[in-house]
Write a structure and sequence with these properties.
The protein contains four helices and nine strands, in the order αβαββαββαββββ. It is of the alpha+beta class.
Length: 206
């Protein structure tokens, strides 16, 4: 009897030490509307001029320009793919997007983030953001703490608390475009900044 009990205790210890499931690959994920090539190229020239005027900020590379709908963070790729699949079933129609004027997020008098606002497409983007928020919560992820404000991030201050922003050149008048998909991206951080890899495109209706 004692031998059987000892055997059971040993088996329990082994079971406790063994992983319940094999962890899947994790990605730093976010969902966004990507900018078409012509708009990105035109903004590239503008970003170069801004970088020369305000070197206290890290200006975005044009390949990374996007309109974030929901930043997910570090998550199993399978979970992110599942959220994308749920979005595909209810994403809704394609819609027109137009960018607006330059704005900033501040801490006191110091600027932390420089962005371009959205003047057309806010309603559909807000609806997609709400859908993604609901699906993220259903997947057990932490809720987004800040209210959704559609914008295109152009730069972040190098100092943690922000920096004074010098006068910038006027932004280009970009042509509106029709957003036909939401893209799930994986963001890879490196010494030279982040590289955004598209993982899956969720098509919007015609």
């Amino acid at each position: 009897m004692a031998a059987v009990a000892a055997e059971l205790v040993g088996a329990a210890r082994l079971a406790a030490q063994a992983p319940l499931t094999e962890p899947g690959p994790r990605i730093r994920a976010f969902f966004a509307i990507a900018l078409p090539g012509p708009q990105r190229e035109e903004l590239s020239r503008y970003l170069e001029a801004c970088a020369a005027a305000s070197p206290e900020f890290r200006w975005a590379v044009h390949e990374n320009l996007h309109l974030t709908l929901r930043f997910v963070g570090s998550v199993d790729r399978e979970v992110a793919e599942r959220i994308a699949g749920s979005l595909a079933a209810q994403a809704g129609p394609a819609f027109q997007v137009a960018l607006g004027e330059v704005g900033t997020f501040k801490r006191g008098r110091l600027v932390r983030v420089v962005w371009l606002g959205v003047r057309e497409g806010v309603g559909p983007m807000r609806r997609l953001a709400d859908l993604l928020e609901r699906e993220c919560r259903a997947a057990g992820l932490e809720p987004e703490a800040r209210p959704f404000k559609p914008h295109l991030t152009l730069a972040r201050a190098r100092p943690r608390d922000g920096a004074p922003l010098t006068e910038l050149p006027p932004p280009p008048k970009l042509e509106p475009w029709r957003a036909h998909e939401v893209v799930l991206f994986s963001s890879h951080l490196g010494r030279d900044g982040a590289v955004h890899e598209p993982i899956r495109a969720v098509a919007l209706g015609d």
